[in-house]
Write a structure and sequence with these properties.
- The protein is an alpha/beta fold.
- The protein has a domain of 147 residues: 2-enoyl-CoA Hydratase, Chain A, domain 1 (Alpha-Beta Complex).
- 42% of the residues lie in helices and 18% in strands.
- It contains eight helices and nine strands.
- Strands 3, 4, 5, 6, 7, 8 and 9 form a seven-stranded mixed sheet that branches. The chain has a two-stranded antiparallel sheet with strand order 1-2.
- Helix 4 links the parallel strand 5 and strand 6.
């Protein structure tokens, strides 16, 4: 706000005050309000394709939330995406000192389903009308020579075996069963995902309301 100023035009003229209107306050943008709410309530949104940019954003927030031991609530609505970017998120989740509760809300397909499975055991959820899907690895940008293709295939096969084994340990299936399931491209309802241990329960409206309790004050 600018101060009032006094101006004397001449010795014969009376002193006058020039009132300066205060500058209008800049309105708070809706996205700023939402961002503040998400940080305050320790919520993290994994939405859309999982790529390098999304992964960096999500990992940064996980590092921020990890400064306190309270749970983080990761809401997932994604068709999947890049394997490397997805596992960067998983590695950061496992490095956090705070538990990460995962909630599939909409779709948790491909890499997004794997991220959901690496949430805190006993706290991996799906909303009632969500869908989940797992499938085997898809290779993009294959090498231009047989030798290089063979090298890449050998590496990917071993890496894929390790990742499937680690994922199966968090589920109710063996690594062999999981690999067969992924080879078929398995689409699941929340109840079907619960049967194989991909999620632990259904996220109900009452659970959401309980989480919100006290934050609106």
């Amino acid at each position: 706000m600018k101060l009032n100023t006094k101006k004397r035009r001449s010795n014969c003229e009376p002193e006058t005050e020039l009132e300066v209107e205060p500058e209008p306050a800049v309105p708070i943008q809706l996205d700023e309000i939402i961002e503040e709410f998400l940080v305050r309530t320790r919520r993290l949104l994994v939405v859309g394709e999982i790529n390098e940019i999304a992964s960096a954003h999500i990992c940064s927030y996980l590092q921020l939330f990890s400064l306190r031991p309270d749970p983080v609530y990761m809401y997932i609505n994604s068709p999947g995406g890049c394997l490397a970017s997805g596992y960067a998120i998983i590695d950061q989740m496992l490095a956090c000192r705070c538990p990460v509760h995962t909630i599939v809300r909409g779709q948790g397909h491909s890499m997004a389903a794997m991220i959901a499975a690496f949430g805190e055991k006993g706290h991996r959820y799906s909303t009632p009308n969500s869908s989940l899907m797992l499938h085997s690895i898809i290779i993009h940008n294959a090498p231009d020579s047989i030798e290089r293709h063979g090298q890449m295939t050998g590496y990917l096969e071993e890496d894929y075996r390790k990742k499937v084994t680690a994922l199966a340990r968090r589920m109710k299936v063996t690594a062999k069963q999981l690999r067969e399931l992924m080879n078929q491209t398995k689409w699941m309802s929340p109840q079907q995902a619960m049967k194989i241990g991909l999620v632990d329960g259904i996220w109900t409206p009452r659970m959401e309301q309980k989480l919100n309790k006290g934050f609106g004050k």
